[in-house]
From TrEMBL:
GO terms for molecular function: mRNA 3'-UTR AU-rich region binding. This is Exosome complex component RRP43. PANTHER family: EXOSOME COMPLEX COMPONENT RRP43, EXOSOME COMPLEX EXONUCLEASE RIBOSOMAL RNA PROCESSING PROTEIN. Belongs to the RNase PH family. It holds the Pfam family RNase_PH_C. Keywords: Acetylation, Cytoplasm, Exosome, Nucleus, RNA-binding, rRNA processing. InterPro entries: ExoRNase_PH_dom1 (IPR001247), ExoRNase_PH_dom2 (IPR015847), ExoRNase_PH_dom2_sf (IPR036345), Exosome_comp_Rrp42_subfam (IPR050590), PNPase/RNase_PH_dom_sf (IPR027408), Ribosomal_Su5_D2-typ_SF (IPR020568), Rrp43 (IPR033196). Residues 26-165, 192-255 form the Exoribonuclease phosphorolytic domain. It is found in: Cytoplasm; Nucleus, Nucleolus. The gene is Exosc8. One of its GO terms (cellular component) is nucleolus.
Amino acid sequence: RTVEPLEYYRRFLKENCRPDGRELGEFRTTTVNIGKCLCSITTADGSALVKLGNTTVICGVKAELAAPAVDSANKGYIVPNVELPSLCAERFRSGPPGEEAQAASQFIADVIENSQMIVKEDLCIANGKLAWVLYCDIICLDYDGNLLDASVFALLAALKNVQLPLVTINEETGLSEVNLKQKNPLIIRKHPVATSFAIFDDTLLIVDPTAEEEDLATGTVTIVTDEEGRLCSVHKPGGSPLTGAKLQDCITRAITRHKEVKKLIDKVIKSITPK
């Protein structure tokens, strides 16, 4: 495994399995904790922790009030940020965000935009005067591959946990008034779920790759779908090309995975909702 890691993997792949015992199309155990069970970030307006095997990601959403942009007077803002601190894996260093963290942040921003999971007009309180800004901080605590799937899942779970207070503008003073006693859940229009694949030897597809599998792969691809089976995004940062048939296979598997993740998130939200 140390001297010839690729050959080591190929021996398993020939038998349609992987060194960790999974089949090629099998995902690692997935768990999600939402909201108050995360005592570490009680200051967030919404939070979630997702584990995908050993990969652990936490997402906190902070809502603040701001004036809308001049050219988007009826829209709020969503600001995603992915952090890969040195504590999550040896490959990352302290300091400014590296290339992988920046690419992940851009990917999350694209998913939010393309899926229309949150319509920015819904974040507007008073046209041209006041809107919500949602700061979505996604921090990897333990990195073992497939960061994108875990990040999208954590983001969705945290956003579904957000409760925004009622805000009105006093017509006499022109100042905003916040009613913390009356809160409403954030309007989530779509539920995007990411499903990632590693490509081995230009032809073989395996789902939910570990960090080791990502390093040995000849390419990766991430498919994002919503609950209607609609394709929201295809993220393929170079590597081996995919045939139309292979890509369709990925999309089909991604739609199946979406149902599993949505079922899991609904179950957790139901368990923490007051009776």
